[in-house]
Amino acid sequence: MRRVVVTGVGIVSPLGSGLEKSWQGIKDGRSGIAPITRFDTTDFPVTIAGEVPDFDPSEVIEKKEIKKMDLFVQYGFAAAMEAYHSSGFKITDENAERVGVYIGAGIGGLPAIEHWHKVMQEKGPKRLTPFFIPMVIINLASGQVSIRLGAKGPNSSSVTACATGTHSIGDAARLIERGDADAMLAGGTEATITPLCVGGFNAMKALSTRNDDPSGASRPFDKGRDGFVIGEGAGILFLEELEHAKKRGARIYAELSGYALNSDAYHMTTPAPGGEGAARCMNLAVKDAGLATSDIDYINTHGTSTYYGDLYETMAIKSVFGEHARRLNVSSTKSMTGHLLGGAGGIEAVFAVMAVKDGVIPPTINYTDPDPECDLDYVPNTAREIKIKNALSNSFGFGGTNGCLIFSKFDS
Fold first, then answer.
1. CB of 353 within 8 A of CB of 339?
2. Bridge partners of 261?
3. Catalytic residue positions?
4. Helix 195-203 to helix 110-123 angle, to the nearest 10 degrees?
5. Angle, CA of 197, 200 and 201, to the nearest 5°
6. Burial class of residue 212 (count of CB atoms within 10 Å of its CB; 0-12, 13-18, 19+)
7. Tens digit of each residue's pLDDT (9 = 90 or more) over 28-64
8. What average pLDDT does range 237-262 have in this prediction?
9. Is position 410 within any domain?
10. pLDDT over threshold 80, residue 412
């Protein structure tokens, strides 16, 4: 089986645009949650979110092209360009057909849909932009990157709710493993901080209403958790076949050693009791990596800050890892970024890769009142420096879809 390594990373997150800002914010335990500025929240029970604070599309996208992309495409594009350039790889006429793009989103172009629907209602269909449809279609995140770089290999998108980014990365790795590509840009993106999205999730009673304490609102595994906080951004990895990367002397951040996906087959929004499906998925990923459960050092959890989500993930971890669960470093970076929906697995893969590379475990901030039912080591409030050989990243989505990735310290 061909081995897959990570040779480039790119990210746009509520902690800042670019790897340096985002990773430093994670290590510092800084929250990116703040009051919503995108729309008037006067009539909304929820008024907080994780908006990207500093994104300027003109830094990476030609001005005439910006208007053709909704924000989720712009975020994915920017993160992909950073991942591509950090890899040091160059797409040429000779290798273009061996390089692909696999970037997904959970919801896609909702801001453009809301905006242009209003335009049509108020001014009629003749005022619609001809770019409307390409702006909102999810696979245009992959398409725009492919067009810009001339990547002529596999081009696709996963749309699997909150597991999207993880599935995109794992599926892209499979393409490399089986020889359909030598390199892939892969990950997830999302930008849905809109009235309809916030209102819709609020109607489900899924969101935190801790409006008076934005930075403390996302508190995974804490007894006082009351729902997740919507975030936005993108996380992209440049994946490459190992020998291909070694031949060109590439910097290797980590090896993608394991991947699994499965289904709860239980409920459209609620995880299976006890995290049964999540447990099966973690076991499958460990088996795919050829590891024992005792080999895992760190888990970047799905950890959304919802009652059942955090409880059942904790139960699943204890089910899979047994006594080793007590020795595991377990944290949720959503405590700092909020929940990026389709982009969550992408940025969390970046954080897992950087944890392996730098030997730094991200903290779970806002962990102040331990839940007796969530009784693992959640790396509370302060990052931890420790050597990591294998890190597991979990993503679980509506519809009962699950995905797990394992990143390992590269050992030639």
1. no
2. 403
3. 162, 302, 339
4. 110
5. 90
6. exposed
7. 999 999 999 999 999 999 999 999 999 999 999 999 9
8. 98
9. no
10. no
The separation between CA 248 and the C-alpha centre of its own chain, rounded to angstroms, equals 28
> What is the pLDDT, as a whole number, of residue 396?
98
Does residue 212 sit in helix, strand or coil? Answer: coil
> pLDDT tens digit string along 74-101?
999 999 999 999 999 999 999 999 999 9
Beta strands in 85-162 (DSSP E): 99-104, 155-156
Residues 6+ apart with CB under 8 A from 111: 70, 71, 191, 192, 194
386-408 tens-digit pLDDT: 999 999 999 999 999 999 999 99
323 in a structural domain? yes
Sequence letter at residue 367: Y
Residue matched to tokens 């050597």: 387
| Under 8 Å between Cβ of 395 and 161 | no
Q: pTM of the entire structure?
A: 0.98
173 assigned to some structural domain: yes
CA–CA separation, 141 and 188 (whole Å): 9
- pLDDT at position 201: 97
**Structural domain includes residue 135:** yes
Specify the pLDDT at position 309: 98
Full domain range(s) for residue 174: 1-392
Number of C-alpha atoms within 13 angstroms, CB side, residue 207? 27
Number of compact structural domains in the chain? 1
Contact call for residues 89 and 244 (beta carbons, < 8 A) = no
Long-range Cβ contacts of 127-133 (<8 Å, 24+ apart): 129/67, 131/67, 131/68
| CATH number of the domain that residue 203 is part of | 3.40.47.10
* Percentage of the chain exceeding pLDDT 90: 99
